[in-house]
Amino acid sequence: MYFRFQDPLYGLLLLLFVAALGLRRYWGKGSTLRFSSNWALHEVVKRGFSRLRRLLTILRLLVLLLIVIALMRPQIGRKWIEEVTAGVDIMLAIDLSGSMHAHDFELDGKLVNRLVIVKEVVAEFIQNRKNDRIGLLVFAEEPFLVSPLTSNREWLQSNFERLEIGLIGPNSTAIGSAIGIATNRLRSIEAESKVLILLTDGENNAGNLHPITAAEAADRFGIRIYTIGVGKSGAVLMPRQGTGGIVRNSSGNPVMDWVEFEIDEPMLREIAQLTGGTYFRATSLESLKTIYQEIDRLEKREVTFVRYDEARELMMLPMMLAALLLALELFLARTFLHKVP
């Protein structure tokens, strides 16, 4: 809240009033009637009503002061700034195939699987995109929509944290089908920017839709795809899989084997290039963080600030008070404080 005078220059009129009072005091009219003795008039001035005549002058000065205040246009109001953003619709596609069990990332000095690192980084990315709608799908042998586009960060995060490897056929990877599902979700959306961020650690070996064909369709609908190859190529430590899940030793720890993995980087790079996106490779926690930070920078939200100033005019209050005081002055001057020439 604030208080201000919209036209404060009118306050200079008060200087004129002060000057007029000074001139009146020193160069005012002299006596009209002359008396040989003023003892009788002196007795009259001592009476109460005669002394109250000063009230008329005070009232007149107050009226003039209030008129000047009204001319200065007093206002009370508030100012605020509203942020207007052109959001981005983002679909996250996360690989949940069995290869995401590979332990080739470090977190706090310990080897962890790829999904642990992905959850760590993607959760931060989601929180940073406060003005965007974000959807989430996962894929392995087939794609599965976890969340449609939403701006509810808490609901999205809670669903994301529940993801586990092996929920949807962990032995193959349907990259093309995942792009197709994401395209269907984004194509009819009217947004300034439509983005798919696809993260995988393998190559397309399932589904009926080829990834390049799916990328071409996405490009026709104005969807930009950023692809991320996560994990190291070559031999990496992998928990041994049994009929009941991960095989563990007598101490309860997973039995680890060295397994060869390759990422189809040429395909991921072509998908990104076809749609105007970028391909990234992440082999550590730091590099994956940097990738999502770079995507956040590339898909920067357009932010504008609109300034508002809401003011309420108060000039009627001093004007009404001036009118009342003027009426009181006229009433007193013609009744109780009537002046006889």
What report would you give on this structure?
This protein has 341 residues and is an alpha/beta fold. Helix content is 39%, strand content 28%. The protein contains eleven helices and 15 strands. Strands 7-6-3-8-9-14 form a six-stranded mixed β-sheet, with helices on both faces. A three-stranded antiparallel β-sheet has the order 1-2-15. Strand 4 (105-107) and strand 5 (110-112) form a beta hairpin. Helix 4 (54-71) packs antiparallel against helix 11, helix 5 (114-128) runs parallel beside helix 10 (285-298) and helix 8 runs parallel beside helix 9 (265-275). The two termini are 52 Å apart. The mean pLDDT is 84.
Topology:
Blueprint (H helix, E strand, L loop, with lengths): L1 E4 L7 H15 L11 H7 L2 H4 L2 H18 L2 E13 L1 E8 L9 E3 L2 E3 L1 H15 L4 E7 L3 E8 L2 H9 L13 H12 L6 E8 L10 H10 L2 E8 L3 E6 L1 E2 L2 E2 L9 E6 L3 H11 L3 E4 L2 H14 L3 E12 L2 H19 L7
Parallel strand pairs: 3-6, 3-8, 8-9, 9-14
Antiparallel strand pairs: 1-2, 2-15, 4-5, 6-7, 10-13, 11-12
